Amino acid sequence: MGNSPILVFGLPRSGTTWIGKLFDSHPDVVYRHEPDSWIHIDGVPLFPSPDDPEFRQHARHYLEQVVPMCSTATCGKLPLFPKRYRSPLAQRLHKGSLALALLLEKTGIGIKPPILAAGTGPSARLTWKSIESVGRLALFLAANRQACGVHIARHPCGYISSVIRGES
Q1: Which has the least CB within 10 A, 49, 67, 125, 129?
Q2: Which residues pair with 126 in a beta bridge?
Q3: Cα–Cα distances in angstroms (integers) from residue 35 to residues 7, 65, 156, in the given order
Q4: pLDDT (average), residues 27-38
Q5: Regarding predicted confidence, which is higher, 130 or 105?
Q6: Are the CB atoms for 35 and 132 separated by under 8 Å?
Q7: Residue 46 pLDDT > 70, yes or no?
Q8: What pLDDT, in 10s, does the model give residues 149-167?
Q9: How far is residue 105's CA from residue 166's CA, in Å, rounded to a whole number?
């Protein structure tokens, strides 16, 4: 897998999911939806100094762990797009394992089957969407100089309108 991740970070209800799924529609993208909401980033404050070598090391380590993170939350955001790094059979297995995991999750059965999401290749590129780590974006960019950051900002009135519409 290439070492130039795309980091799509923003506040809740700012359009990060929509923009993240736009990136995910590319056949080479390995999309992870809010992995930091699933496995928290320990040892790094919300607004760390990107110059701190210890924090940069934590960030590098976390970035290495993002691709293998696969849960219904991180790998199951619909729609699912065909990927060049997955054969048609692997694509069907991924969708099937995800559907089974979602079904078991909804029924409350404590079994968590593996979600078959592996198969990344040299052209694959991580896209990580986050609403938890907006204040850490500079740190992740410092930890991986090849990473590209997309910081999503939304006008406060648009945010308020979205929250009100979401509650009604």
Answers
A1: 49
A2: 30
A3: 12, 9, 26
A4: 95
A5: 130
A6: no
A7: yes
A8: 999 998 889 888 888 888 8
A9: 24
Tokens 């993170």 — which residue? 69
Q: Residues 157-161: contacts with CB within 8 Å, 24+ apart?
A: 159/11, 159/13, 159/14
Tokens found for residue 71: 């849960």
Q: Which DSSP symbol is given to 3?
A: S
- DSSP 3-state of 50: coil
- The closest of 145, 130, 134, 129 to 47, measured between CA atoms, is 134
pTM attached to this predicted model: 0.89
Q: Does 114 score more than 80 pLDDT?
A: no
Q: Which residues, other chains included, contact 30 with Cβ-Cβ below 8 Å and sequence gap of 6+?
A: 1, 67, 83, 85, 120, 124, 125, 126, 127
Residue 161, Cβ neighbours under 10 Å: how many? Answer: 12
What is the Cα–Cα distance from 114 to 101, expressed in whole angstroms? 8
pLDDT of residue 162: 84
Q: Sheet with 148-152: list strands edge to edge.
A: 29-33, 125-130, 6-10, 148-152
Classified as helix, coil or strand, 95 is helix
The pLDDT of residue 150 is 98
Residue from 74, 67, 62, 68 nearest 140 by CA? 62
